[in-house]
Amino acid sequence: MPTDGLHSDAAAKAERKLTFIYYPRFEPEWQPGHGGELAFRRPDGTDALVEPRCDRLVLFNAEQPHQVLPCLTARVSLTLWGLGTPGLRLAPPLAVPRDTPTCDSDLCQQALRRRLQRDAQSVASRAGGTASVPRRHGAV
Prior knowledge:
Blueprint (H helix, E strand, L loop, with lengths): L8 H4 L3 E8 L14 E4 L5 E4 L5 E6 L4 E3 L9 E6 L22 H22 L13
Antiparallel strand pairs: 1-4, 1-6, 2-3, 2-5
């Protein structure tokens, strides 16, 4: 990961304690290769990426070093900060956000199903067959 854009939101303004980044529904839907991932630098020096997927909310300690990678297509995001007393610190970040949906809304489940279907079809087409993703009981 390039580090020229690596920064902490708290370094810019000391009262920033939490960072909230929301990726709303946007057409065309984000796909791997479009860029614009949110990249985090873990305390051990390793990197983690969070994809800017539809209807995703990412929350993290504003002291966490991060950057947005170059984006090759249009992308929409909304950033907000939770403010607090300058000089008062939150506990250090323990982990980087997961890249798996934890939302049970119909919109999230539909997006996850489309993603799984595309992945299964891609694998099947390389193998010369077809594939489908079975529905969970009660799933959309």
